[in-house]
TrEMBL record:
This is Cell division ATP-binding protein FtsE. Keywords: ATP-binding, Cell cycle, Cell division, Cell membrane, Membrane, Nucleotide-binding, Transport. CDD domains: ABC_MJ0796_LolCDE_FtsE. The lineage of its organism: Bacteria, Pseudomonadati, Thermodesulfobacteriota, Thermodesulfobacteria, Thermodesulfobacteriales. It comes from Thermosulfurimonas marina. GO terms for molecular function: ATP binding; ATP hydrolysis activity; transmembrane transporter activity. Belongs to the ABC transporter superfamily. The gene is ftsE.
Amino acid sequence: MALGKPLLQLEKVTKIYPPSIRALENISFEVRRGELLFVTGPSGAGKSTLLNLIFGLERPSSGRILYGDLDYAHLRRRDLIALRRRMGFIFQDFRLLPEKTVFENVYLGLEVLGIGGAVARERVERILRRLDLAARRDQRVETLSGGEKQRVAIARAVVKEPELVLADEPTGNLDPERSREILRILEELNAEGITVILATHDENLLRGHHRRILVLPEGRIVNA
């Protein structure tokens, strides 16, 4: 698939946590529309920090982040919240509500956007069928397997039809078979036009995939 114009650009981004922990150092790269980009490196290398910055959960200590023609530094809080609605985030620890059902967890992803009623229900049912979760729709999340929970997390992230999905170690707690299943789902979503940034320390996921890989050891990119 031919890639489009740059969707995201990072220019000399540095993130320092008090007192002087340099999580990211002088990071520069761009992501094009329709790309599936792997970001790899050992635990603690700064992968989660990078995704948090892109999602606007944290601010860089220096440097610039652009989403299309939007400069994060100039966005007010409400503008940043609006920008996040164009993204989906698959968190490493799922961030699901364990006492709620599968349907309720995914539906809440739309409800916070002000989308409800028949439109929301139809979209939720469609994505549950897509991810083979329809038979689990009324089960509480706490009763699911790890792989099923991760699929619910993916459903919640993509039900709002984002243009960019950020996946933070989406296979970190899964066995190899379930890991391949999750990667296949993300590749299918990417083939449909969703831009995906996948952060992982699992080198097995990278084998046999002709995708761009950013290597991020100790907060610095060694190839961009």
